[in-house]
């Protein structure tokens, strides 16, 4: 079954050329949002989300006195654009949504990933099992779907759902490195959580399980336990991210057009500071991957600020960034790999 990118990710993720947030001293909500009591239109708020990202918009709307409620739609119905809550509340909303539908949370072992195989060196993925030094040591597929998940009536593979969300991804180890493979991620734009919360929830459950000493066939059961309330910790985010995040079988029409122009005869490597890097990070998949990284960084920054304010112990977590990656075409399918590192 073909996998898909997350529809509407360009409305959720920040651009790598985004303006700085108020915490960085470059802009304020008052400078970007309407004045004189005017409401924020859905179009304006979406534009702002594209510029500086969900986390920054959420902080601005929550903290700046000039922030206004979204304007109603033309037919008088409430606006569909939601104010973003702080990360812990968004994560709680996501967990509550998926846990209402216990039968729609599944975990299973996976033998391979098409995206990982496409980037494997010659003689690596295609070699005999005992000769493959780069094979994933542990790989598990996680699927979560909310109870109210409803696909779009028209062209559901290209349009976001009308309600709820569905998130299917692979996580595991590739040699000594932790990896994630983004497969199918759908979220209705009206939900109070984002795809980043889904990713961090799933990755946290797998991350806790990978260090355990048990057979690989027991990994899915352990992960499923950590997806439930038994896996909830003091703070709903792991303290590290995978070494690489893959985007498998990119199928969005606009994304494929953009990637087709960039790809030469073979794999294409890109690094921060290059034109190719900028162009790839402007795609839907680049923006949504960057949004995961920024959500992680902002979540831990906010957590430690709150701990410091009440005199509690902090948990220093170094922020991540995406310094480089690679693009490859496997037949008619595009795959992206984003490499993550800490400052």
How many domain modules? 1
N- to C-terminal distance: 38 Å
**Overall number of strands:** 8
Approximately how much helix is present in the residues?
25-40%
Mean pLDDT: 76
The whole-angstrom Rg is 20 Å
Textual characterization of the structure:
The chain is built from ten helices and eight strands. It is of the alpha+beta class and 343 residues long. It has one domain. β3 and β4 form a beta hairpin.
Task: Itemize the secondary structure elements and their pairings.
Layout: H1 29-32, H2 42-52, H3 54-63, H4 87-99, E1 105-109, H5 114-119, E2 136-145, E3 165-174, E4 177-187, H6 195-210, H7 219-227, E5 244-250, H8 253-262, E6 268-271, H9 275-281, H10 284-309, E7 320-330, E8 333-342
Parallel strand pairs: 4-5
Antiparallel strand pairs: 1-2, 2-3, 3-4, 5-8, 6-7, 7-8
Essential attributes:
alpha+beta, 20% strand, 343 residues, 8 strands, disordered N terminus
Concise account of the structure shown:
The protein is α+β, with helices and mostly antiparallel strands. Helices cover 33% and strands 20% of the residues.
């Amino acid at each position: 079954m073909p996998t898909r990118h997350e529809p509407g990710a360009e409305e959720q993720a920040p651009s790598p050329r985004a303006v700085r947030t108020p915490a960085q001293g470059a802009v304020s909500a008052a400078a970007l949002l309407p004045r004189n009591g005017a409401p924020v239109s859905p179009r304006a708020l979406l534009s702002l989300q594209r510029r500086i990202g969900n986390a920054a918009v959420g902080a601005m709307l929550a903290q700046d006195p000039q922030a206004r409620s979204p304007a109603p739609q033309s037919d008088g119905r409430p606006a569909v654009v939601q104010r973003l809550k702080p990360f812990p509340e968004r994560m709680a909303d996501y967990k509550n949504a998926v846990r209402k539908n216990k039968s729609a949370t599944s975990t299973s072992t996976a033998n391979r990933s098409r995206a990982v195989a496409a980037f494997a060196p010659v003689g690596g993925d295609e070699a005999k099992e005992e000769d493959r030094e780069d094979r994933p040591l542990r790989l598990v597929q996680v699927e979560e779907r909310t109870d109210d998940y409803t696909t779009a009536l028209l062209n559901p593979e290209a349009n976001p759902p009308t309600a709820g969300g569905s998130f299917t991804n692979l996580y595991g180890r590739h040699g000594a490195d932790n990896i994630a493979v983004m497969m199918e991620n759908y979220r209705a734009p009206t939900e109070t959580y984002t795809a980043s919360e889904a990713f961090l929830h799933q990755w946290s459950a797998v991350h806790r399980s990978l260090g355990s000493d048990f057979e690989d066939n027991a990994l899915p059961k352990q992960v499923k336990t950590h997806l439930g309330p038994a896996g909830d910790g003091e703070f709903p985010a792991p303290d590290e991210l995978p070494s690489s995040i893959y985007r498998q079988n990119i199928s969005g029409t606009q994304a494929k057009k953009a990637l087709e122009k960039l790809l030469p005869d073979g794999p294409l490597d890109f690094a921060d500071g290059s034109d190719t890097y900028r162009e790839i990070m402007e795609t839907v998949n680049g923006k949504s991957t960057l949004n995961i990284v920024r959500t992680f960084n902002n979540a831990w920054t906010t957590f430690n600020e709150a701990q410091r304010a009440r005199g509690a112990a902090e948990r220093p977590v170094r922020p991540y960034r995406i310094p480089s990656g690679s693009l490859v075409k496997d037949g008619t399918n595009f795959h992206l790999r984003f490499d993550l590192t800490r400052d």
